[in-house]
Structures are given as structure tokens and as C-alpha cells.
Automatic annotation (TrEMBL):
<keyword id="KW-0597">Phosphoprotein</keyword>
<dbReference type="GO" id="GO:0033499">
    <property type="term" value="P:galactose catabolic process via UDP-galactose, Leloir pathway"/>
</dbReference>
<feature type="active site" description="Proton donor">
    <location>
        <position position="213"/>
    </location>
</feature>
<dbReference type="GO" id="GO:0006006">
    <property type="term" value="P:glucose metabolic process"/>
</dbReference>
<keyword id="KW-0963">Cytoplasm</keyword>
<dbReference type="Pfam" id="PF01263">
    <property type="entry name" value="Aldose_epim"/>
</dbReference>
<dbReference type="GO" id="GO:0030246">
    <property type="term" value="F:carbohydrate binding"/>
</dbReference>
<keyword id="KW-0413">Isomerase</keyword>
<keyword id="KW-0119">Carbohydrate metabolism</keyword>
<protein>
    <recommendedName>
        <fullName>Aldose 1-epimerase</fullName>
        <ecNumber>5.1.3.3</ecNumber>
    </recommendedName>
</protein>
<dbReference type="InterPro" id="IPR015443">
    <property type="entry name" value="Aldose_1-epimerase"/>
</dbReference>
<dbReference type="GO" id="GO:0005737">
    <property type="term" value="C:cytoplasm"/>
</dbReference>
<keyword id="KW-0106">Calcium</keyword>
<dbReference type="InterPro" id="IPR018052">
    <property type="entry name" value="Ald1_epimerase_CS"/>
</dbReference>
<dbReference type="InterPro" id="IPR047215">
    <property type="entry name" value="Galactose_mutarotase-like"/>
</dbReference>
<dbReference type="InterPro" id="IPR011013">
    <property type="entry name" value="Gal_mutarotase_sf_dom"/>
</dbReference>
<feature type="binding site">
    <location>
        <begin position="114"/>
        <end position="115"/>
    </location>
    <ligand>
        <name>beta-D-galactose</name>
    </ligand>
</feature>
Length: 387
């Protein structure tokens, strides 16, 4: 048949387009070692829009599942010291569970990560009122923050597959000024690192503080609490808070306190130190640490080691601070993957960001973004093992 070769290549092209997974697989390469990105339907949102689930895979077998609803990292499968792949995040079984009740598991946070005191700030002489959703304060962007919106997704195939997510928050959305165009790119690197690049521009002066709120438990499958995890934080100072977790303005040296993680320290060893007011206010760790090292170059912010699995996670960031939260508010009421109830301290979060409530603290590094400027930050979560 004269047209057979053309027909065959047309058939191949069509299957590539419809299968939504067509990374360049070489012959003899097994499927599970193939790097690339797949897309499947994830479900329908209450407003009728549909969300997708993307699976990014590198040649080492690590996978990251991400949905464009809230930019949520739904799962991260990484190997333990014996090469066993398990999920190291808390997550839910379905899109509807994420919509119903999600304590920010895996989600992108914006327009402002963490708290703004009393939901008020003044910019260029004008006071803005934001939604109050946490102990009289504004938390994580408000009622419908970036964790609850549908992002426009563009998959980028390759050895280091990426997912570009775009969202434009409208002028006045959640009370903030300015149309803010945000782009977040997740890249799964060959070296078992998940890189997150954040970018934003605005058409009016505004405030921005973007982060990701993944809950980690390196045991895999969140089998137990994270009190035996060993954490190191490259930070000499703590952003002290009041009872409602709003910064007092004081940057407190950590040396000799329960907040000193300069050397690798077991999370549970001082977490209930009732003599420490900051521990009392946080109900454990729920604070920002000021990262050592100046400027916005990538620096090692945190290292987490879990002894039974041998898993290690290193966090690098261009941000000036990191919120270390030990899942103190988890109480078993959120039933996650495979029907598993996540209890108090079953995970830890390492949210790289600017200081909480910066718009009300002129002495803190600024979070103001003006027209013509580009907000740009990068954070990398890298996984490895040690015996
Ligand atoms: C942040 C906050 C915590 C808590 C969690 C989400 O880490 O600092 O107090 O609100 O988010 O539950």
C-alpha cells in the first residue's frame, strides 16, 4: 500500500496527542524509568470546571503528582534507603475531599502566605481590609486563596518534566489591590529534587508572599508522627510572635532555646517545653525563622532526616525566612489517603517565604510589589538517603 508509511506516522501522532503522555521513550527503556509528564482528568469542581492531575516522573523513578486545583502537590513518591518508593506527603484521595476540607495540604499559598494582623494593612496611604479567617487575623490569602482556585496548566515534557501554572488574581480579590499575574513552575529534576519557581507582576502596588504548604512525613505513608525526625535550620533568629501568632517585631536569638536547630535536633525533644512562651503560643513549632545568609541567592535553609527510612530532605530557597510548622492543629478529623486519619504532629511543613505580617512591619524585608517589577523566588526540596 502506497500510503502505509504516512498512515502509520499519522496513527502514531494521533495516539501521542490523545494519550496525553508522549515523552520521548527510547527503545529498551522500561516504562517505569521513563522521564516525562502524564495528564489525567481529576474531577469536577462545584462550579462545573474540571481539574486535571499531572504526574511528573524522572528517570530515577521519583514521581510528583500535582493538580491544577490550588496547584496542590497530591503526592511525592521518593525512595528510602533500600530503594522502596513511598509517599512522603499528607494528601487526600479525591478532588472532592480537597475541595471540602483541606488544611492547605500540598497547596500553593497566596496572595500572602501566613498572617496579616487583624486583616488590615496600609499601602501608599490607603488602608486595605482583608478577610479574617484565623484568630482575628488574615491567614494564607483569605477565604478563597490561591490554594482554592483553578490554575491554567501547561505541561512541559523532557528529562526534567515541568508543570507551569498560571493564575491572575483580580484587583480587589480577597481585598488586595492590583491585578496580580502569577506563574508557578514545578520542575522534577533528575537529582530527585522538586524545584518551585514563583513569578508575579502587578498593575498596581500590592503585597505578595507566595509559598507552598506541603506537609511532609519522611517515614513514608505518614505511619506515625514526626517527633523522631531530625531537623536542622540554618537560622540564628526566630520571628517572635504573640498569642495569635502575629510577629511582635522582635527577632529573637535561638541559641540555648527550644528553637535552636542550628545543629541537627530531634523535633520532639523540646517541642513541649512549657517554660518557653513561644512554644506555648505556637502549641509547638509554628514560627518563622530568619534564614542566615543575605541577598536572594539560593541557600540551604533546612535539612530533615528520618532515621528509620534513611530519607533526607534538603530545602534550598531564595527567600529570607522559613515557617516551620509541626502540624499542631491536625487532630485526626481530616481523613486522608486510604482512609487514614492524620493526627496531631503527623507532619511538618517548611514554608519558605517572607516574614509574616510584613506589610505592618516596615523594619521587615518588604513584600511590596510595584508595577514594572517582577516578583521572583525559587525553592527546591531535594530528596536523598543515608544509611
Ligand atoms: C501555617 C500556620 C499555622 C497553620 C497552618 C495551616 O503554617 O502558621 O498556624 O494555620 O498554616 O493549618
Amino acid at each position: 500500500m502506497k500510503f502505509l508509511p504516512q498512515l502509520l506516522s499519522l496513527a502514531l501522532l494521533t495516539s501521542c496527542l490523545t494519550m496525553t503522555s508522549c515523552s520521548s521513550k527510547k527503545e529498551n527503556e522500561s516504562d517505569d524509568k521513563k522521564a516525562g509528564i502524564d495528564k489525567t482528568a481529576y474531577g469536577q469542581l462545584p462550579d462545573g470546571q474540571t481539574a486535571d492531575l499531572y504526574t511528573l516522573r524522572n528517570a530515577a523513578g521519583m514521581t510528583a503528582q500535582i493538580t491544577n486545583y490550588g496547584g496542590i502537590i497530591v503526592g511525592l513518591q521518593v525512595p528510602d534507603k533500600d530503594g522502596k518508593f513511598e509517599d512522603v506527603t499528607l494528601g487526600q484521595d479525591s478532588l472532592s475531599s480537597y475541595v471540602k476540607n483541606n488544611p492547605y495540604f500540598g497547596a500553593l499559598i497566596g496572595r500572602y502566605g501566613n498572617r496579616i494582623a487583624k486583616g488590615k494593612f496600609t499601602l501608599d496611604g490607603k488602608t486595605y481590609d482583608l478577610f479574617i479567617n484565623n484568630m482575628g487575623n488574615h491567614l494564607h490569602g483569605g477565604k478563597v486563596g490561591f490554594d482554592k482556585v483553578l490554575w491554567t496548566a501547561t505541561p512541559v515534557d523532557g528529562d526534567e518534566p515541568a508543570l507551569k501554572l498560571a493564575y491572575t488574581a483580580k484587583d480587589g480579590e480577597e481585598g488586595y489591590p492590583g491585578n496580580l499575574s502569577v506563574e508557578v513552575t514545578y520542575t522534577l529534576q533528575k537529582d530527585n529534587a522538586l524545584k518551585i519557581d514563583y513569578k508575579a507582576t502587578t498593575d498596581k502596588p500590592t503585597v505578595v508572599n507566595l509559598t507552598n504548604h506541603t506537609y511532609f512525613n519522611l517515614t513514608g505513608g505518614a505511619k506515625r508522627d514526626i517527633l523522631d525526625h531530625v531537623v536542622t535550620l540554618n537560622a540564628d533568629k526566630l520571628i517572635a510572635v504573640d498569642q495569635t501568632l502575629i510577629p511582635t517585631g522582635e527577632l529573637k536569638p535561638v541559641a540555648g532555646t527550644a528553637f535552636d536547630f542550628l545543629k541537627p535536633s530531634v523535633v520532639g525533644s523540646r517541642i513541649n517545653d512549657s517554660t518557653d512562651t513561644q512554644i506555648k503560643y505556637g502549641g509547638g513549632y509554628d514560627h518563622g525563622w530568619v534564614l542566615n545568609g543575605s541577598g536572594d541567592s539560593l541557600k540551604l535553609a533546612a535539612t530533615v532526616y528520618e532515621p528509620t527510612s534513611g530519607r533526607v530532605m534538603e530545602v534550598r530557597t531564595t527567600e529570607p525566612a522559613i515557617q516551620f510548622y509541626t502540624g499542631n492543629f491536625l487532630d485526626g478529623s481530616v481523613v486522608g489517603r486510604e482512609g487514614f486519619a492524620y493526627k496531631k504532629r503527623y507532619a511538618l511543613c517548611l514554608e519558605t517565604e517572607h516574614y509574616p505580617d510584613s506589610p505592618n512591619h516596615p523594619a521587615f524585608p518588604t513584600t511590596v510589589l510595584k508595577p514594572g517589577e517582577t516578583y521572583k523566588t525559587t525553592t527546591i526540596y531535594q530528596f536523598s538517603t543515608k544509611k
